[in-house]
Design goal:
Strand content: 15-25%
Protein name: Histidine triad nucleotide-binding protein
Structural class: alpha+beta
Number of domains: 1
Bound molecules: adenosine monophosphate, zinc ion
Largest sheet: 5 strands, antiparallel
GO molecular function: catalytic activity
Pfam families: DcpS_C (PF11969)
CATH architecture: 2-Layer Sandwich
Radius of gyration: 14 Å
Strand order of the largest sheet: 1-2-3-5-4
Oligomer: single chain
Helix content: 10-25%
CATH topology: HIT family, subunit A
């Protein structure tokens, strides 16, 4: 999709530190890492968010989750990790190309959310 940041990374028009790639998905380091390991895993095909994903996206969505442990272990998170998929306005999704954050490292990542 034109003017989509992550589509530009898929197309190689914007650089990224790619840590895994296959025909369907791309994983690269987050530019502003929040933990020792912080990787974004995206479908190469533009899907805006989980709110717009459809039945034809089931395989690629499954692949993102199925590859998460391999990616996390390879990046230095051998003992678990957290997957976060911010979605839409309430989920405070900033980049409107679906992406799974994989966050981890040697230490536990902390509480899931703070109660407000
Ligand atoms: P979200 O709030 O879930 O949409 O997260 C967007 C994430 O994209 C943030 O963690 C940003 O640090 C990350 N990000 C933004 N631009 C880039 C980029 N050019 N390369 C890698 N990560 C990026
Ligand atoms: Zn896109």
């Amino acid at each position: 999709m034109i003017d989509c940041l992550f589509c530009k990374i898929v197309a190689g028009k914007i650089p990224a530190k790619v840590v895994y790639e296959d025909e369907d998905i791309l994983a690269f380091n987050d530019i502003n890492p929040l933990r020792a390991v912080h990787v974004l895993v995206i479908p190469k095909k533009h899907i805006t968010s989980l709110a717009t994903a459809s039945a034809e996206d089931v395989l690629v969505l499954g692949k993102i989750l199925a590859k998460a442990n391999e990616i996390a272990v390879g990046q230095g998170s051998p003992d678990g990790f957290r997957v976060i998929i911010n979605t839409g306005r309430v989920g405070q999704q900033e980049v409107l190309h679906l992406h799974a954050h994989i966050v981890g490292g040697a230490e536990p990542v902390g509480p899931m959310l703070k109660r407000i």
